[in-house]
Design a protein that fits this description.
Blueprint lengths: L1 H38 L2 H6 L1 E8 L6 E3 L1 H15 L3 E3 L3 E8 L2 E12 L5 E12 L2 E10 L7 H9 L2
Parallel strand pairs: 1-7
Antiparallel strand pairs: 1-2, 3-5, 4-5, 5-6, 6-7
């Protein structure tokens, strides 16, 4: 009985250590991707994309399908930002793994041209394969402040 318990605990530790290492690897890949995007490294950004990538920007009109469309979005961002963008440290990170796919959701401060940073909420799906991690899907938004259901209900109850 003790041997069986030991084997189960050891297996659980090994599997959770492997998952933890994979999560760290994905988080590092994402941080590198964000940095490449911010500094305008087009080759690195496009090299990280799955051919059938789908990306949603923070504006409702920003929906891009395929590498060429995301490349267009990247080019437009670079015209707007130059190489002055900066992403800060990711926080509120959540990673879920299923086979070769992993999702990562996080908040990250973003600034451009020395302006004060804004929080951006990002959701990404990555696929691990022989050529490393490839971005399959992404979405980002600038979350509101004070507009949660609880905040709105509180303000309505004061009326």
């Amino acid at each position: 009985m003790k041997l069986r318990l030991f084997i189960m605990l050891t297996a659980g530790f090994v599997f959770s250590a492997a998952a933890w290492a994979q999560n760290i690897e994905l988080q590092s890949t994402v941080a590198s991707y964000l940095n490449s995007y911010a500094i305008g490294d087009r080759a690195a950004v496009l090299g990280a994309l799955d051919p059938d990538v789908r990306s949603y920007g923070s504006d409702v009109a920003e929906v891009f399908s395929g590498k060429d469309a995301v490349a267009k979005m990247f080019d437009e961002d670079m015209k707007l930002w130059g190489a002055t963008a900066k992403f800060g440290e990711m926080h509120n990170v959540s990673i879920v793994s299923e086979g070769a796919l992993e999702t990562i959701f996080f908040d990250v401060p973003f600034s451009v041209a020395g302006r004060p940073p804004v929080q951006v909420r990002v959701a990404m799906v990555w696929r691990s394969g022989a050529q490393g991690w490839k971005l399959v899907q992404s979405s980002n938004t600038v979350p509101t402040v004070g507009q949660s259901a609880a905040d709105i209900l509180k303000s309505l109850s004061k009326q």
